[in-house]
Protein backbone atom coordinates (compact mmCIF):
# COMPACT_ATOMS: atom_id res chain seq x y z
CA UNK A 1 0.00 0.00 0.00
CA UNK A 2 1.35 3.41 -0.91
CA UNK A 3 -0.57 5.33 1.72
CA UNK A 4 -2.37 4.47 4.93
CA UNK A 5 -6.01 5.51 5.11
CA UNK A 6 -4.97 8.37 7.39
CA UNK A 7 -2.94 9.73 4.46
CA UNK A 8 -6.00 10.00 2.22
CA UNK A 9 -7.54 13.41 1.65
CA UNK A 10 -11.16 14.37 1.07
CA UNK A 11 -10.44 14.67 -2.68
CA UNK A 12 -9.36 11.02 -2.76
CA UNK A 13 -12.93 9.98 -1.95
CA UNK A 14 -14.52 11.95 -4.84
CA UNK A 15 -15.84 9.50 -7.44
CA UNK A 16 -16.08 10.90 -10.99
CA UNK A 17 -19.19 10.27 -13.10
CA UNK A 18 -19.42 7.00 -15.04
CA UNK A 19 -18.46 7.36 -18.68
CA UNK A 20 -18.46 3.79 -19.91
CA UNK A 21 -20.77 1.05 -21.13
CA UNK A 22 -20.65 -2.62 -22.01
CA UNK A 23 -21.25 -3.73 -25.57
CA UNK A 24 -22.26 -7.25 -26.56
CA UNK A 25 -19.60 -9.42 -28.11
CA UNK A 26 -19.79 -13.05 -29.23
CA UNK A 27 -18.22 -14.79 -26.22
CA UNK A 28 -16.61 -11.92 -24.34
CA UNK A 29 -17.52 -8.34 -23.49
CA UNK A 30 -16.45 -5.10 -25.11
CA UNK A 31 -15.70 -2.13 -22.90
CA UNK A 32 -16.52 1.27 -24.40
CA UNK A 33 -15.25 4.25 -22.43
CA UNK A 34 -14.99 7.96 -23.16
CA UNK A 35 -13.93 11.18 -21.53
CA UNK A 36 -13.12 14.84 -21.93
CA UNK A 37 -9.51 13.79 -22.56
CA UNK A 38 -7.83 10.61 -23.71
CA UNK A 39 -6.42 10.22 -20.19
CA UNK A 40 -9.94 10.23 -18.78
CA UNK A 41 -11.07 7.68 -21.38
CA UNK A 42 -8.24 5.37 -20.24
CA UNK A 43 -9.23 5.86 -16.57
CA UNK A 44 -12.87 5.13 -17.39
CA UNK A 45 -11.92 1.99 -19.31
CA UNK A 46 -10.05 0.70 -16.25
CA UNK A 47 -13.06 1.45 -14.08
CA UNK A 48 -15.35 -0.34 -16.53
CA UNK A 49 -13.23 -3.46 -16.13
CA UNK A 50 -13.39 -3.32 -12.32
CA UNK A 51 -17.14 -2.60 -12.36
CA UNK A 52 -17.64 -5.69 -14.51
CA UNK A 53 -15.98 -7.78 -11.77
CA UNK A 54 -18.14 -6.50 -8.89
CA UNK A 55 -20.75 -3.90 -7.99
CA UNK A 56 -18.97 -0.64 -7.19
CA UNK A 57 -21.38 0.44 -4.44
CA UNK A 58 -19.90 -2.30 -2.23
CA UNK A 59 -16.30 -1.11 -2.71
CA UNK A 60 -14.74 1.34 -0.26
CA UNK A 61 -11.60 3.41 -0.61
CA UNK A 62 -9.25 2.11 2.06
CA UNK A 63 -5.95 1.71 0.21
CA UNK A 64 -3.99 3.38 -2.55
CA UNK A 65 -1.62 1.50 -4.84
CA UNK A 66 0.34 2.74 -7.82
CA UNK A 67 0.74 0.92 -11.13
CA UNK A 68 2.96 1.80 -14.05
CA UNK A 69 2.66 0.78 -17.69
CA UNK A 70 4.98 1.30 -20.64
CA UNK A 71 4.65 0.37 -24.30
CA UNK A 72 5.86 1.06 -27.82
CA UNK A 73 2.62 2.63 -29.07
CA UNK A 74 -0.74 3.91 -27.83
CA UNK A 75 -2.64 0.64 -28.25
CA UNK A 76 0.11 -1.19 -26.42
CA UNK A 77 -0.11 1.39 -23.66
CA UNK A 78 -3.85 0.81 -23.20
CA UNK A 79 -3.31 -2.95 -23.23
CA UNK A 80 -0.47 -2.86 -20.69
CA UNK A 81 -2.33 -0.37 -18.47
CA UNK A 82 -5.38 -2.64 -18.24
CA UNK A 83 -3.16 -5.68 -17.82
CA UNK A 84 -1.39 -4.04 -14.85
CA UNK A 85 -4.78 -3.26 -13.28
CA UNK A 86 -5.89 -6.86 -13.80
CA UNK A 87 -2.64 -8.06 -12.22
CA UNK A 88 -3.27 -5.80 -9.20
CA UNK A 89 -6.64 -7.53 -8.76
CA UNK A 90 -5.28 -11.03 -9.40
CA UNK A 91 -2.45 -11.10 -6.83
CA UNK A 92 -2.12 -9.87 -3.28
CA UNK A 93 -3.62 -7.56 -2.16
CA UNK A 94 -6.41 -8.56 -4.64
CA UNK A 95 -7.27 -4.88 -4.95
CA UNK A 96 -10.66 -3.98 -6.39
CA UNK A 97 -10.53 -0.33 -7.42
CA UNK A 98 -13.32 2.17 -6.96
CA UNK A 99 -11.36 5.04 -8.47
CA UNK A 100 -8.39 5.42 -10.81
CA UNK A 101 -6.34 8.59 -11.23
CA UNK A 102 -3.67 8.65 -13.90
CA UNK A 103 -0.93 10.94 -12.57
CA UNK A 104 1.37 10.59 -15.58
CA UNK A 105 0.02 10.15 -19.11
CA UNK A 106 2.84 10.46 -21.60
CA UNK A 107 1.71 9.73 -25.16
CA UNK A 108 5.15 10.48 -26.63
CA UNK A 109 7.09 8.02 -24.47
CA UNK A 110 4.01 5.81 -24.00
CA UNK A 111 4.06 5.71 -20.22
CA UNK A 112 1.29 5.72 -17.60
CA UNK A 113 1.51 6.03 -13.83
CA UNK A 114 -1.82 5.54 -12.07
CA UNK A 115 -3.06 5.70 -8.49
CA UNK A 116 -5.59 2.98 -7.74
CA UNK A 117 -8.01 3.59 -4.87
CA UNK A 118 -9.94 0.70 -3.38
CA UNK A 119 -9.78 -2.23 -1.03
CA UNK A 120 -9.03 -5.93 -0.93
CA UNK A 121 -11.67 -7.97 -2.75
CA UNK A 122 -13.56 -10.16 -0.29
CA UNK A 123 -16.08 -12.82 -1.22
CA UNK A 124 -19.17 -12.17 0.87
CA UNK A 125 -18.68 -8.42 0.91
CA UNK A 126 -18.23 -7.89 -2.82
CA UNK A 127 -20.72 -9.55 -5.19
CA UNK A 128 -18.91 -11.61 -7.79
CA UNK A 129 -19.36 -10.44 -11.34
CA UNK A 130 -17.59 -12.01 -14.28
CA UNK A 131 -14.00 -13.16 -13.96
CA UNK A 132 -11.79 -11.22 -16.35
CA UNK A 133 -9.20 -13.65 -17.68
CA UNK A 134 -7.30 -11.37 -20.04
CA UNK A 135 -7.18 -8.15 -22.00
CA UNK A 136 -7.14 -8.58 -25.78
CA UNK A 137 -5.98 -6.54 -28.76
CA UNK A 138 -8.91 -7.91 -30.75
CA UNK A 139 -10.97 -5.02 -32.20
CA UNK A 140 -9.18 -2.55 -29.89
CA UNK A 141 -9.83 1.05 -30.94
CA UNK A 142 -8.57 4.35 -29.63
CA UNK A 143 -10.31 7.46 -30.91
CA UNK A 144 -8.16 10.52 -30.21
CA UNK A 145 -9.67 13.49 -32.05
CA UNK A 146 -8.93 16.67 -30.09
CA UNK A 147 -10.37 18.95 -32.79
CA UNK A 148 -13.75 17.23 -32.32
CA UNK A 149 -13.38 16.79 -28.53
CA UNK A 150 -13.78 13.07 -29.13
CA UNK A 151 -11.85 10.67 -26.91
CA UNK A 152 -13.01 7.05 -26.78
CA UNK A 153 -11.58 3.58 -26.31
CA UNK A 154 -12.97 0.16 -27.14
CA UNK A 155 -11.43 -2.97 -25.61
CA UNK A 156 -12.57 -6.58 -25.60
CA UNK A 157 -11.89 -8.45 -22.37
CA UNK A 158 -11.76 -12.24 -22.22
CA UNK A 159 -14.21 -13.52 -19.60
Structure description:
The protein is globular, with a radius of gyration of 15 Å. By secondary structure, it is of the alpha+beta class. The longest helix has 17 residues, at 74-90. Helices cover 21% and strands 36% of the residues. The strands form two sheets. Strands 1, 2, 6, 7 and 8 form a five-stranded antiparallel sheet that branches. Helix 1 (38-53) packs parallel to helix 2.
Query: What is the succession of H and E elements?
Result: EEHEHEEEEE
Annotation field: number of helices: 2
Shape: globular
Q: Given the helix and strand composition, which structural class is it?
A: alpha+beta
Could you name the ranges where pLDDT drops below 50 across 5 or more consecutive residues? none
Quaternary: single chain
Gap from first CA to last CA: 28 Å
Considering DSSP H and I runs of 4 or more, what fraction of the residues is helical? 10-25%
Radius of gyration: 15 Å
- Mean of residue pLDDT values: 94
Major pleated sheet:
5 strands, antiparallel
User: What percentage of the residues does DSSP assign to strands (E)?
Assistant: 35-45%
The strand count comes to 8
Describe the structure concisely for a colleague.
With 159 residues, the chain is an alpha+beta fold. It contains 2 helices and 8 strands.
Secondary structure blueprint with pairings:
Elements: E1 20-24, E2 29-35, H1 38-53, E3 63-70, H2 74-90, E4 95-106, E5 111-120, E6 134-135, E7 141-145, E8 150-158
Antiparallel strand pairs: 1-2, 2-8, 3-5, 4-5, 6-8, 7-8
Helix pairs in contact: 1-2
